[in-house]
Amino acid sequence: MRARWLAVVVGVLLAGVTVPAQAANILSNPGFETGSLSGWSCSGGSVVSSPTRSGGFALNGAVTSSDYAQCSQTVSVQPNTAYTLSGWVRGSYVYLGVTGGSSTWTPSAASFTQLSLSFTTGASQTSAQIYVHGWYGQPAYQADDFSLDGPGGTPGAPSAPGTPTVTSATNSAISLSWPAATGTVTGYRVYEGTSVVQTVTGTTATISGLQACSSHSYSVAAYNSVGESPRSAATSGTTGGCTSTGLAKHALIGYLHASFANGSGYVRMADVPDQWDIIDLAFGEPTSVTSGDIRFNRCPASECPNVESDAEFIAAIRAKQAAGKKVLISIGGANGQVQLTTTAARDAFVSSVSSIIDRYGLDGLDIDFEGHSLYLNAGDTDFRNPTTPVIVNLISALKTLKAKYGSRFVLTMAPETFFVQVGYQFYGGSGGSDNRTGSYLPVIHALRDSLTVLHVQDYNSGPVMGLDNQYHTMGGADFHIAMTDMVKAGFPVANTGQTFPGLRDDQIGIGLPAAVSAGNGYTAPVAVHQALDCLVKGQNCGGYSLRGGSSPGFRGLMTWSINWDHYYNWEFQNNHAPYLDALP
């Protein structure tokens, strides 16, 4: 069960915090006495006439094994102001909280029991979302008589505009449009992060003077003489002018067990079929966890009797490259923990990885850091400006390697969902969870304009909450659709107040086990193709609504591994290479 914490207010008034002289409930329909869910946004919620705590109606949350029946309401608030939230609940594992802030819960309440918490809005906060929900697999819960005591937002300010969309992009500019705000509107401010990059009177804007092949995230706020609205949700855009690496538009990507056999047998480089567009040599590993000194040792003949000589291996790499394929060294893996805790380790990493690339004439580098390689120190909450040494030094090392080898250098990453999508709920440096959650996000963000492909491992994963605020489970089309949509659309990072901007569709792939023996989360080919129909064409989405839109430039599929696919008579290759080749 995910971590929860109880905010305890001890009556100490901080300087500059506004405390209302007379509290007032600013929620709409707080006791559901309209006989409807008016004012609330609910999943699995309905209004019932019994049981109630008071009045004629209450909320019933119909929890299922995949939906914890959350109901929420967003209200206007004043910045830097103290509020108290309370509600009466009945049932098992019922939670009350503020999105991005405090929460409280009860494990069991046979009769209506009051939950309460206090919070203070941020210096520029103008809206807050409160919620109530149960927990997976528990019986339905009931809730009634909510109260959010404190002053409402500034009267007369306009509502938030709709989410902007990117209407066009050039090498140096991105154009946006958005649905108008309601109320009296003087104009709109376009934000990138906390900075206003343009002010306009209409509902379109063009931000110019941007670098070629650079990614940006924008939100919009309306304003008038009274004040500024809450900002819209953010949207991401990328300028043109990206240098081609010569990679296939829709690529088949696989790991080759070059340093071990792993029960699936050794496959010689020359015997890798032509369908594979990127071949990741697994693995380069450190001499010790913190040394940064990476070594690539080819599989010994005692373990791999059919292993080729170094000369034959290099000749086969050259033949692959002549045919337009890319061969990379993959660093890490399940057993290769790498922690660049010092600048000396960073420099050793750059030097040793460069030696491997140069010796074999490779096209680039894959980062497959797992386990405890990446983590976030307490207080490191801004993925845009990380401070944890293992993160900062890895970013510096990768930027150095990219600069050394130039624009055609192929850089890929293969994080687990725990290090990327789980950052939507929990971010390691902000406390309240494992300090590794979301820890790839600052690395991906810092390298986003150099990153060739991010193929998250959609396997060996627990259930993960998607942008629909539902948990998705690996092994079916739904999981791949939801996880990939998060990378394309971007998402708010836990309770940090920051939003991770989405990637270009040509930077996004999906990682899959090649066969049932290769990893947990094997997905049948028909389900993989359903997911790709949704992601690439916007079709057959099974009721899921793509927040990031379709991705016609979707880069492709990665698998662990080429060796396992060979062991299973090329099931992965034979099913998926023709599908990718048929995409426009």
What would the principal axes of the Cα set say about the shape?
globular
Distance between the termini: 43 Å
Number of strands: 28
- The radius of gyration computed from the alpha-carbon positions, rounded to a whole number of angstroms, is 26 Å
Beta content: 25-35%
Mean pLDDT: 90
Given the helix and strand composition, which structural class is it?
alpha/beta
**Number of helical segments with 4 or more residues:** 8
Can you tell me the residue ranges where pLDDT is under 50 for at least 5 consecutive residues?
Answer: 1-23
Largest sheet: number of strands, sense, barrel closure: 8 strands, antiparallel
- What fraction, in percent, of the residue positions are helical? 10-25%
Notes on the structure:
This protein has 584 residues and is of the alpha/beta class. Helices cover 17% and strands 29% of the residues. Strands 1, 2, 3, 4, 5, 6, 7 and 8 form an eight-stranded antiparallel beta sheet that branches. β17 and β18 form a beta hairpin. α2 packs parallel to α3 and α5 packs parallel to α6. The radius of gyration is 26 Å and the shape is globular. It starts with 40 loop residues before the first strand and ends with a helix.
Quick structural summary:
Helix content is 17%, strand content 29%.
